[in-house]
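User: Sequence in, structure out. Go.
Assistant: Echoing your sequence, followed by the structure tokens.
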Amino acid sequence: MKNLSFMRLSIWIYLAVFFAYLLGPLVIMSITAFNSPEFPRATPWECLTFEWFSALFQDERILNGIKNSILVGAGTVVLSVAMGLAGALMLTQIWPKLRATYYTIIIAPILVPGVVIGISTLVFWDRINRMVGLGADSFLSNGLFLTVIGQSTFIASYCMLVLVARLQRYDIALTEAALDLGASHAQAFRKVLLPFMKPAIASAAVLAFLASFENYNTTTFTFGEYPTLTIELAQKVRYGITPAISALAFIIVLLTVFAALFNEANIRRKELVAEARKEATVEELSSGQFKLPGFLSSNWAAVALVIVACATVTVVGTASVYSPQQCIADVQEQKRLETELRIQELQRQRELRRQQQEAEQGSSSAPAQSQPADNNSGFGGVFAPSTLSGDEAETEAEDTGNNSGFGGVFAPSSLNSEEESEGAGN
């Protein structure tokens, strides 16, 4: 019993740590979207504000990036799902000995780095454009076209994996029965196989759109004049990030939660309808009106969806009437006072250091003034005051005989005696 309780506690701790590691950054970034500082941060908390959502919807670059991402995502979904479905059908019908080789070829683009795919797409279609003789502004050089082609080369492999998983549960006898009853291959595909593949096609389409929406490595080489949202965000981060990015992240997280809860609620509803059909009477089945057993109590996803919707409406209503200007003004005034106190503290510390330095200089100069100056000072007393006096100058003038520099050759007396001897010789 103790081991069972310990195992349950360990499982709950593991789940808590796992989801904290997985969702913690998203939660923190969502919190920064409602904090007033201009740089995204959750602490210290200053003021509740909704101005970053307004700044987000006024940013033309972000809105243009979202529009381009939706266009690229739509094109990628169509092309990737079509190629993935074709690859899945071919995989189930190809010769068994070639399935492993074919599967490896189809999966290979997933293993290729996105940077390589982006560069190769750009170089390949540029060469095709030159071979055809089209100009630089042709559709083969269009950023939307290149981005859709580049992303579809590896996203189609993801779609194929999803469709193959669904196709493996398909009974081929249904198609053979339709063909035996006179249907053509196109009719059998459209009326028998395609309805069976609809859930997988929807899942593959969602996967392809999300993979296209968040792709950066491939898109950075092919976007041209149509930068997607990831490109715009990367460029904005280089010049300084703002909480408007956090607001965008919060909206994306909220939409994802809405979609997940709606899908789960729809699945639970179908299960409850199936259970109700089993217990319904013939009259209820014929009329199509039968009671669902405790829809809200048994469908937790629907309850969570209602709670999230009510919370969203409440936040939007609060944002329309709430004004954080007074709170922001109070925070700025508090910051100003703290800055002044800090400046005063620095000035006081600087004054104390100056006084200490003056005291140290005064104590070190007092002994130096009490010592008498003599000829034993530095430089041999050359710069002593007595050296520069007139008495020393007279003494030096008297001693400038043969003892002067260069043996007294340049002394005045030597020059006069030489002139006299030369005159006597003449």
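User: And one key feature?
Assistant: The two ends are 142 Å apart (CA to CA).
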